[in-house]
Design brief:
alpha+beta; ATP-binding; 10 strands; about 50% helix; about 400 residues; globular; binds adenosine-5'-triphosphate; single chain
């Protein structure tokens, strides 16, 4: 990992950060990835090698400018260095400069399977044809490694904020920090979708109904069922109860949508985890049978809406403005840094305070939204809206 960001790297970062990002829509990704031949994959590679450094650079600048001393927290510095390092690797990756041709020095290094860090010097003017297949593969390997590097970003950022809150009791996640985190995580979702899509198109054999990581026929009932099973299992383990509240699913048969199944699963799973926890805590551990959670999926022309209703006692009105705040939780769990080693798609029952805000970002990323309405003393309804049109471009910070 970079121990510090050199002034020359920082000036490149700030130069790149001044360019606008280019958003893509779900439909564009599907159209583009339908026929992943070498020509399209090369164009995707070129798009990503222009686009990813801009997105990463913007985040480094924002992390640098975080207020109230947050930018000095070790875990946040660590994240900033990951971003800077990935940025550096991407801009050092050689570009195909004239259709199909690359500068010879780079070509030699990549033909030897070595890293691409050779600096171009003025005498090096010869261009040679490039082996497009290995070029695309090497770029895909690079971004795949970058994605892995950033796996613990969410955990590290959250831990950084906890460090900062513990430093001074007046340090609280205010609106400014909340807006920063929303932008930061939204951008992260976008970067990971773009990388995930390229890696899947390049390395996975074609699979029915799939274009990369996007499923053109995501069956909502099936995903809801799987998320319910997973959430109930975690609930049973966590509360050591024999039978978690049931989840009754009502879904028009065969209803499917163009979507990312992993995102959909994540959102429904998080909402169900909240409902299950509320029901068990509200009715007590000794209860033989709990009121079921109802998950209703409705199909409209614009949206598909998933409503999750529980009888878990609801949320007091004073608490409602807080539930989408990062690190706001009513779960009473003490964390140390080791507790933060879990994978973001494998969260514990509760306690991180990230479930709702991150799920809302996942929904918004593809033009949807998430709203929560509570009846204190009775229960909570969560409405997850998914846009059917798939044309909305990524909302880019
Ligand atoms: N269905 C619900 N019924 C009652 N309270 C809820 C419900 N959903 C959310 N809440 C409240 O909102 C808070 C924040 O929820 P959120 O999902 O963001 O975090 P969490 O569940 O506490 O932790 P995690 O990051 O593990 O999801 C919860 O701690 C809980 O107090």
């Amino acid at each position: 990992m970079l121990s510090q960001i050199s002034p020359s790297l920082m000036s490149k970062i700030s130069y790149y950060s001044s360019f606008p990002s280019n958003g893509v829509s779900l439909r564009q990704m599907v159209e583009f990835g339908k026929n992943p031949n070498q020509g399209t994959m090369l164009r995707a590679t070129q798009f990503l090698s222009d686009e990813l450094p801009i997105r990463l650079a913007k985040r480094v600048i924002e992390l640098n400018n975080l207020p109230f001393g947050l930018n000095k927290m070790p875990s946040i510095l660590r994240v900033k260095h990951w971003y800077a390092e990935s940025f550096q690797e991407l801009i050092e990756f050689p570009k195909i400069e004239i259709a199909g041709y690359i500068r010879d020095k780079y070509r030699n290094s990549f033909m030897n399977g070595k890293a691409y860090y050779t600096q171009f010097d003025a005498s090096d003017t010869q261009y040679l044809p490039v082996d497009t297949g290995s070029y695309i593969q090497d770029f895909t390997n690079l971004i795949s490694a970058i994605k892995r590097r950033h796996d613990p970003t969410m955990i590290s950022m959250a831990w950084g904020i906890i460090e900062w809150k513990n430093k001074d009791k007046d340090n609280q996640v205010n609106k400014e920090i909340q807006i920063f985190l929303d932008r930061f995580y939204l951008s992260r979702i976008g970067i990971r979708v773009l990388i995930g899509q390229q890696v899947a198109l390049q390395s996975q054999p074609p699979q029915k109904d799939y274009v990369g990581i996007i499923c053109t026929n995501t069956n909502l009932g099936d995903i809801a069922k799987e998320a319910a099973e997973n959430a109930r299992y975690i609930c049973q383990e966590h509360f050591a109860i024999f039978d978690a509240p049931k989840v009754e699913i009502v879904c028009p048969p065969g209803l499917s949508i163009l979507y990312l199944p992993s995102h959909l699963h994540h959102m429904i799973f998080e909402l169900l985890k909240n409902s299950l926890r509320a029901v068990v805590e509200f009715h007590g551990l000794e209860k033989e049978e709990y009121p079921p959670i109802k998950l209703i999926i409705a199909e409209g022309k614009e949206d598909i809406t998933i409503k999750i209703s529980d009888e878990g006692g609801g949320i007091p009105r004073s608490g409602l403005p807080l539930i989408f705040t990062y690190l706001y939780t009513t779960a009473n769990i003490q964390f140390d840094e080791n507790s933060f080693q879990f994978n973001e798609f494998n969260a514990p029952m509760a306690g991180f305070g990230y479930g709702l805000p991150i799920s809302r970002l996942y929904a918004r990323y593809f033009g949807g939204d998430l709203a929560v309405i509570s009846m204190e003393g009775y229960g909570t309804d969560a409405y997850l809206h998914l846009s059917r049109l798939s044309d909305s471009k990524e909302p880019l910070p």
